[in-house]
Amino acid sequence: MRVAILKERRACEARVAATPETAKKLIALGCTVAVEAGAGLASGFTDAAYAEAGAEVAPDAAAALADAAIIFKVRAPLGTGEGEVDELALIPRGAILIGTLGADAAAAGTYASLGIDAYAMELLPRITRAQSMDILSSQANLAGYRAVVEGAAAFDRGFPMLMTAAGTIPAANVFIMGAGVAGLQAIATARRLGGRVSATDVRPAAKEEIKSLGASFVGYEDEESKSAQTAGGYAKQLSADFYAKQAEVVAAHIAKQDVVVTTALVQGRKAPILVTAAMVESMKPGSIIVDIASDAGGNCALTTPGERTTTDNGVTILGYTNWPGRIPAAASALYARNLLTFLTTFWDKEAKAPKLSPEDDIVKGTALTRAGAVVHPSLAPAAA
Ligand code: NAD
């Protein structure tokens, strides 16, 4: 079985879907691995390191994809007119494509029409058995870390209380909005840097998690928020009335913050606006907002996704997108292990091929297409 690893060509993508370490493990499974030349460079992995691991370094995408049975990707392959290479057209019919594929009906229809069996890892069910393949968790964790580090670097005072012979510098007030995987890592990182950390979330379980990391909880709670969590562990979309009350509580708190890190997402929707223009206006000059939710539009009304901007009252907003891609060596290492674990979980040792049983919960959750048909329950036409 030939596994192909391509260079990621989408904008601002420095990650790669296999590292020399995971390439070696794929070879140990009985695969041959073809890595497009330069695929790992932006993450610090040289062609020589892949070759040393036993992979073939292919001169271009076409050579890497020739006869490939499995393709590992970070982002969806480029289609016609999307870039200098039509990657989709080069993928052999019947190949298995595994990555973050942008799981919508149009993409799934394209994979089906090309006879590609596509597995969208962002749809992985968040069950215990799947934790080690969970790309959303591994990448969000690093995003939370990186956001705080970049926020601290942009902040012109520093996080810890500094007692010096020349006087005392107070600790920074750091507020984390959304305490999921990214937010909890952001809390831990801000605490390690010495900040005075508070956090908010709407899910009832989050309050104890915030406190257990040594941060204080700030938030509005009512009957509605007691059921703010879906069975899958995600936040639910709540009423306009709830958001208004939450905003009231948060507004008074934000005015006193030096660094605000926003991470709040509601699955399948645009990110909720938690920091309004008036709240930004209330912050001191030199304050920082780091918006990790900018890929989903942003949690701050003034975020320009992809940009660093400064408001008239001197508040800097880091609205960069693809936060995990800003720490590419670590993000690639974890992402690559997630994909390797997915494949090894379904690996048939005797056949030296994956056996992706359609009845398995993990397969059912991630499979977009099979044998030319769209099969994901959220995208396939309902059975008659
Ligand atoms: P996410 O990225 O979808 O959202 C980030 C956070 O934003 C969530 O905690 C959410 O509650 C919060 N949020 C949404 N709207 C908000 C609002 N208006 N104000 C404040 N916060 C708001 O979530 P996630 O980080 O992927 O994780 C969600 C949950 O799933 C967490 O409890 C996490 O521990 C759990 N999880 C479980 C597993 C597993 O394998 N069992 C794996 C990963 C995550």
UniProtKB/TrEMBL annotation:
Gene3D superfamilies hit by this protein: NAD(P)-binding Rossmann-like Domain (3.40.50.720)
Q: Which GO terms describe its molecular function?
A: NADP binding; oxidoreductase activity; proton-translocating NAD(P)+ transhydrogenase activity
Q: What is its EC number?
A: 7.1.1.1
Give a GO cellular-component term: plasma membrane
Using the record, list the residue span of the signal peptide; answer none if the entry has no such feature: none
- Enumerate the catalysed reactions: NAD(+) + NADPH + H(+)(in) = NADH + NADP(+) + H(+)(out)
Q: What keywords appear on the UniProt entry?
A: NAD, NADP, Nucleotide-binding, Oxidoreductase, Translocase
Highest taxon above the source species: Bacteria
Thylakoid in keyword set: no
- Domain Alanine dehydrogenase/pyridine nucleotide transhydrogenase N-terminal residues, every copy: 4-143
Protein's UniProt keywords contain Oxidoreductase: yes
InterPro entries from the entry?
AlaDH/PNT_N, AlaDH/PNT_NAD(H)-bd, NAD(P)-bd_dom_sf
**Domain Alanine dehydrogenase/pyridine nucleotide transhydrogenase NAD(H)-binding positions:** 152-319
An example GO BP is: NADPH regeneration
Q: What does this protein do?
A: The transhydrogenation between NADH and NADP is coupled to respiration and ATP hydrolysis and functions as a proton pump across the membrane.
What's the protein called, per UniProt?
proton-translocating NAD(P)(+) transhydrogenase
The organism named in the record is: Plastoroseomonas arctica
